[in-house]
Structures are given as structure tokens and as C-alpha cells.
Description:
- By secondary structure, the chain is an alpha/beta fold.
- The chain is built from 9 helices and 16 strands.
- Bound molecules: flavin-adenine dinucleotide.
- Residues 9-15, 37-39, 44-46, 49-53, 119-120, 152-154, 253, 255, 257, 276-278, 287-290, 293, 400 line the site of flavin-adenine dinucleotide.
Amino acid sequence: MYDTEIAIVGAGAAGLSLAYRLCAARPGPASPSVALIDAPPGPARPPERTWCFWEGAGGEFDAATSAVWDTLRVRAPDGTAVTGSPSPLRYKMLRSSSFEAMVHERLDRVPQLRRVEAEVGDVVDLAQGGEVRGVTAQGQSLTLHARWVFDSRPPRKLPPGRTALLQHFRGWFLRAGRPVFDVRVADLMDFRTPQPAHGLSFAYVLPTSPSEALVEYTEFSPAVLGEDGYEQALTSYVTNVLGLERFEVTRAEQGVIPMTDARFPRRAGRSVFRIGTAGGATRPSTGYTFAGIQRQTRAVAAACQRGSTPLPPPVHSVRSLAMDAILLRALDTGRVDGARFFTDLFRRVPMERLLRFLDGGTRWREDFSIGLRTPVGPMLRTAAELPLLPRRDQRPVQPTAR
Ligand SMILES: Cc1cc2nc3c(=O)[nH]c(=O)nc-3n(C[C@H](O)[C@H](O)[C@H](O)COP(=O)(O)OP(=O)(O)OC[C@H]3O[C@@H](n4cnc5c(N)ncnc54)[C@H](O)[C@@H]3O)c2cc1C
């Protein structure tokens, strides 16, 4: 009756993670039949990217990670450093190409998994199951009828929200003319960058050898920059702050992640669900998504194995989302100074607790104590005003540039 039990639209972080958990994590004849549909190479397919996240030693994707750090640092605008270890957590870097290679290699051994290259136009909820309609790479029309459909296509338009900041960045993989980086330390936020009039900016430095690093310039602000804006900011940081006269840029990556208190519906019909960024997996206050995707797809795969309705669970708790909504609004109104806010938070809260908080792993008492280490007056004023603010339509998300 169905062409496949499960159709997954999009083979990015969420689609691949779900396919992996349904078929490859525990392969066997009981695995459901899965069609994994991804856009052919072209504008709909995102360029290669780097995903960072934290977890303990012995993670399931460790074989594919390209670097790991045990020490993290945040620098205030005056250069003062807050350095600490999030032990037992470690900060890990995974290139999307390595993740894809690892997952595809496992999926290739699973006969129930069928890969389809097609640009999906519509996903329709039917009385029985869902239908995926698209056009294949060869120009033929595709119609697939599945018991359950999981759609991870990035939303073109965001749901209405009260705050609509963007995390936008460009990164250089650079090779320096001399050893300059401490490979043990990842700089999460270095605020020695000129601060924009609205929002905040920082550099993010992930060294992979004494002379090689991914160096990103990031802003949390309402609008993206032109490519020149990022290039100038990176050149200024690398030459004036890192003090590098000679360096080579081997590759660049650029992205935009919405930072909003919009609510992302995870259900699009009786049999159609959204996962990944589209399904609310992004932590609004940080843009981190990868670890949330793992929690979400693990729960979906478990529901499929149990035979229950596999509605993706919310990735972030109501309390986490409420705290993030307050922070985003406080940053957007300029009521708190972003550079000072984040530097003080890292100075006052142990790193392990802060990272656990960002993954939703803290209890309410710990969340309360973290709240007390923020500028309480402006945050309370913002909390009081939020329920009175309307949720407004947001501008369409700009596609990620290369
Ligand atoms: C440059 C960049 C760096 C990031 N770094 C981090 C990080 O370090 N840590 C972190 O936690 N998060 C990070 N994020 C945020 C988030 O983890 C990623 O955006 C992640 O890729 C989201 O996964 P996803 O599956 O929801 O979307 P994607 O990975 O974007 O996957 C969407 C998939 O849908 C497919 N698709 C799109 N349209 C169609 C269509 N019409 N038909 C068929 N298929 C279609 C695409 O080909 C793609 O495979 C980053 C984001 C960007 C842009």
C-alpha cells in the first residue's frame, strides 16, 4: 500500500541522523523501509559546513570528528581571558563531509534504505500516510507514498516571533606563516572585534594545529553583511588581534542561523512531521543545533521502533525557551551589553554547568542560579514586558552563501 514506510526529505544533519538511527545504528530485518530524498547538487543543497557540539568521551561519531578540545576560552573586549575546562564534556568538531561519508558507508549496507535524488516541491498529508512530490535529477516527476514523512527542508519563512535576530558569520580555514595557535584551547567568543551598533560581534577560533585554525567572524544582529563586510572584519581580526602578517586562506564557510523566539511546529499533518532546524532543534540563544538534532532523531527512531506515532519531541524545554526569549529581547533592545553579558556568564558559571544548561541538562535550581548570574534588573524588566509583545511575521531566511 505504501511505497515505503518512512520518507525522509533532506539528507543534511537531521535527515542523515534519522536515517542512521532508523537503519544503521541497529541494522537488522526489523528495520523499516526508508526513502532518503535529497536535492540534487545545486542551490537547494547546502555547501559543506562544520558542526561543533559537546559531549563526553566515546561519542558515536568520534571516528569522524576532526578535532577535540578540553579547554575553552572567552575573551572580554579588553583581552581579559576566562579559560576553563568543561570536563567531562569535550568540545568536538565534525565536518559535514566526514559525517556524510561515515553515515553513507553504514547506510550502504542496509537493503531497506533507498536513496533518491530529487528536489521536493510538496509534502502532502493524506488520509492514510503522506505523499512526497518532486522532480528527480533527470527531470522526471517523483511521487512517493509513505506511512510517515519527516521533512527537514529549511523553512523559507520563519514562524512569527517577538525577536528576530540572526547569527551570521563567515569563517576562514587559515594557515599561518608561523606557529601561533594553542591547539588545546578553543576560543568560543573573543570580543576583541568592533561591536556593531545593534547586537554584538565576536571571533571564534578553533585551532587544528599550531599554525592552522578555523577563524570565524560572527554577529548576532538583525541583518547579514555583504561578503566584503565579513572579509574586512576577518582581515582586521587576523592581522590586528592575532598579529599575523602572513597567512593563507585555504577555504571559507559562511552561514546564517535564525535566533528567534518563534515557535516551530513539529507536526505538519497526521503523518507529516518536521525535524532539524525546521522542527525547532536550534537553541535560540546560541544557534547550536547538532546536539539537539541527535536527541530529536533518537526519540523519533525509538517511537518508530515501538510502533507509536513518531511525533518529534520538543528539543528544548519550555523553561529554556523562556530564558532564551528574555535574553534575545534584552540583547535586541540593547538593555544588556552582549560582550559583557557573555564574558560575565562564563566567568561566574562553571563551564560544564553552562554547557549542560545549553543542552537542557540542568535542573531548575541550576537554571535559577544561572539566571542570578545575569544582570537581574534588565532581565526581569524584559521578562515582564515579553507577554505583552505581539509575535510578528519575520523576513524570509536568506540561503547560506558559499
Ligand atoms: C555554516 C553553518 C555552520 C553551522 N555550525 C554549527 C555548529 O557548529 N554547531 C551546531 O550545533 N550547529 C551549527 N549550525 C546550525 C545547524 O546545525 C545546521 O544548519 C544543520 O545543518 C541543520 O541541520 P538540518 O538537517 O536541519 O538542515 P540541513 O543540514 O541544512 O539539511 C537540509 C537538507 O534539506 C535538503 N533540501 C533542501 N531543500 C530541498 C528540497 N526542495 N528537496 C529535497 N531536499 C532539499 C538539503 O539538500 C539538505 O540536505 C551551522 C549552520 C551553518 C549554516
